């Protein structure tokens, strides 16, 4: 399920919104550790990421299954509320709820929560209405939106190479959506808008990372989605059967565990190393879609996905190169 994101490494983001839950916050400022570049830890990071992507993909499939019989906001509530079970570990590790709830920038926290909630609702809706792999493939365009929006919203310079990669990525999205063929359906538009709002959430995580802690960003988002979907619950509630109730609870617990596993993966290895493995979500989505629903993505999805994948990988590799150059320039200035 899913970030995932081919993003600058200072964001510690997954490559696609497989979780469509919350972008993973940046790590706390720290000196560059040896562990992040050691082969053993990198292999461990890759293994954890593959595990997290698999867990998120299973959760996505469960959301799609439940979406046929339950309202989206009810599923969002269970996804958010029961995520607190594994997230309690994060709260405990930072010293309790008082530390986790410490906030310095409430307005940006609210905007980040708004974008994240909107993205989750839109993606959960799209999962229930279209092929799982199709929705996941559209979600992989998140890095393209992040790059395109980082200049007007954050004032970050974007060179012509990354703009060209963005155009290729947008072209891939259009191939998947086939707007001229009458398939610009509400579910596909929901997935596209969900990708856009997910990208906005990522950008706001980047802003918040300068003032807020990791756990604060995650906890406030989860609290917001739980409270808002909980307020809507009396108006949309459908009493689940016992098997469906277990599945609803499992969605939240599985998503919370996957979030923690993915966070650890991006702490152990560089984003540029991990991003290619994040795209394995498409393999999971295709396999689960075929196994459970007999869904097979069309040729336009695979062609469009290939364009999005190439553009996303180029963006993250280009950002990694620029980051290394900036780091070298800073070290040279210090030596002078």
Question: Can you describe this structure?
Answer:
The protein has 336 residues and is mostly helical. The chain has one domain. Helices cover 74% and strands 0% of the residues. The protein has 14 helices and no strands. Helix 8 runs antiparallel to helix 14. The longest helix has 37 residues. The termini are far apart. The N terminus is likely disordered. It is found in: Membrane. It holds the Pfam family EamA.
Short précis:
The chain is built from 14 helices and no strands. The N terminus is likely disordered.
Secondary-structure map with pairings?
Blueprint lengths: L38 H29 L4 H10 L2 H10 L3 H4 L5 H24 L2 H8 L2 H13 L5 H18 L8 H23 L5 H23 L5 H27 L2 H8 L2 H13 L5 H37 L1
Helix pairs in contact: 1-5, 1-11, 1-12, 1-13, 2-5, 2-10, 2-11, 3-11, 5-9, 5-10, 6-9, 6-13, 6-14, 7-8, 7-9, 7-14, 8-14, 12-14
Keywords: Membrane, Transmembrane, Transmembrane helix
Main location: membrane
Subcellular location: Membrane
């Amino acid at each position: 399920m899913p970030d995932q994101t081919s993003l600058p490494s200072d964001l510690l983001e997954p490559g696609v919104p497989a979780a469509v839950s919350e972008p993973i916050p940046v790590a706390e400022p720290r000196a560059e550790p040896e562990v992040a570049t050691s082969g053993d830890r990198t292999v461990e990071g890759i293994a954890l990421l593959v595990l997290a992507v698999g867990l998120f993909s299973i959760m996505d499939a469960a959301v799609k299954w439940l979406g046929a019989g339950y309202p989206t906001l009810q599923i969002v509530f269970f996804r958010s509320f029961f995520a607190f079970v594994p997230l309690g570990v994060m709260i405990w590790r930072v010293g309790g709820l008082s530390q986790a709830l410490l906030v310095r920038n409430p307005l940006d926290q609210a905007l980040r929560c708004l974008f994240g909630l909107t993205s989750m609702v839109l993606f959960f809706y799209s999962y229930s209405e279209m092929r799982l792999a199709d929705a996941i493939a559209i979600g992989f365009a998140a890095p393209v939106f992040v790059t395109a929006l980082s200049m007007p919203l954050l004032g970050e310079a974007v060179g012509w190479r990354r703009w060209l990669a963005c155009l290729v990525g947008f072209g891939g999205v259009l191939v998947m959506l086939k707007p001229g063929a009458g398939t610009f359906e509400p579910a596909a538009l929901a997935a596209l808008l969900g990708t856009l709002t997910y990208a906005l959430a990522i950008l706001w995580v980047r802003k918040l990372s300068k003032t807020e802690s990791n756990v604060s960003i995650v906890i406030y988002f989860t609290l917001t989605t739980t409270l808002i979907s909980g307020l809507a619950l009396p108006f949309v509630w459908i009493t689940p059967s016992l098997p469906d109730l277990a599945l609803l609870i499992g969605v939240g617990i599985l998503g919370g565990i996957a979030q923690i596993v993915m966070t650890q993966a991006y702490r152990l290895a560089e984003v540029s190393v991990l991003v290619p493995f994040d795209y394995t979500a498409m393999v999971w989505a295709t396999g689960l879609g075929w196994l459970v629903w007999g869904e097979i993505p069309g040729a336009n999805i695979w062609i469009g996905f290939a364009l999005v994948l190439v553009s996303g990988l180029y963006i993250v590799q280009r950002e990694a190169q620029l980051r290394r150059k900036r780091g070298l320039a800073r070290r040279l200035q210090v030596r002078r």
